[in-house]
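Annotators were shown the component list below and the corresponding predicted structure, then asked to write short factual statements about the assembly.
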Amino acid sequence: MIANFGIVLGEWRSLATGFLNTVWICALSGALSLLLAVFVSMLLVSRRHGVRRSTQGVVDVLRAIPFLMLLFIVYYCLPTLHVRLSSWTCGLSALIVYNTAYFAEILRGAWSHLPHEQEEAGRAYGYTGLRLYRRIILPQIFIAAGPVLGNQMITLVKNSAFLMVITIPDLTFMANQVQAIYFVPFETILVAVALYWILCSTIEWTVRRMDRVALVRGHE
Amino acid sequence: MAWNSLLAELARGTVTTVMVSLAGIVVGMVSGLALALLRAGGVPVAAHAIAVYVSVVRATPMVTLALLIFFGFPALGLALSPLVAAIVIISINTSVFQAEIWRAALLDFPRGQLDAARAGGMTPALTFRRIVFPQVWRASLPALVNEMSLVIKGSPAVAVIGVVDLTRVAVRWTTLTYEPIPPFLTATVIYVVVVMSLIRVQRYSERRLVAKYGTL
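Structure shown to annotators:
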């Protein structure tokens, strides 16, 4: 068993590559989907009935299907509609679209709990439209939704492992390769699990730190 | 190939997805409760070990766990068939989340009731069965149903180790016919129906419990 861990350590380059790929895939798609979610959340509270209902419908469907389903839909169905994407583009866009739905719903939820007076006070001071959203509403819902967004970020990391299915060399994919070459499956995947644990714990720790900062600034 | 056989295949895949998830949930519920009790009971070494175990498994992606069980366990001399492995994978994954749900309910449990039960001469086992469980169960139910919809959404991970669940049926149909849109669209609809009805059940059970007991 110890010797087997030695074999895994000898292949640390492969696992490190996979780990770094997982990290940047998650960081990039997390950042982009948060940005998109800000806009989608505005559609979710739009005063136009049609816009609100149709956006909510899409978000609800995305939140009801497994990530692997969406990944396969992008990977298999788009080519038949003459959209050809590399597996990297497929994987990243599926991850971004899927998470945008969750992030947007989280932001909408936080927004609906924001006291209405905040918006009215903003309007009374002459803030309208995007500026009202950016300066008054967004900072508050970000702080309120912080921990939930952090949890969703951890879910994103875990969903990113599905990308191995379409041969993206993430941590799980690389671990699977190493175990197949040397036939030390238990030890290799255990090391991958430990790396995922470090990544998720870091996210959790960061969120807790940010939460404390919010508390100091007088938010609950 | 005809719609009829596609629908039959998808129906079989749906049954596999639901059965495997259900089996995992039931096993996960019992082992989750056991983990939560051991942890809440503060058994010296076990409580710490369980805290670490829960933290690690919670951070492990379902696919990675699937590979660990399906490829890693045989190397330790414990080979499992794909279907059994699938149930084990789902149970391990959901048990830690359910342990957290039970733990939250147990931590919220009013101490005064435990003291009262002891003063009334109840043994710890009897206290748990008659006093703690009936109330904790009620408080956890909505979260447990929510966990079921998360399990359904995580279940395609077992397609990776060769279990022909709903997702894998759609993939198989695609590779046979080169027509991905009918199977994937239908499978999507099925997932949406299953998950949304679970959400319905959750809201309904929550309302019923509140109506009956005043609180959860």
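Statements collected:
1. The radius of gyration of chain A is 21 Å.
2. Chain A has a mean pLDDT of 87.
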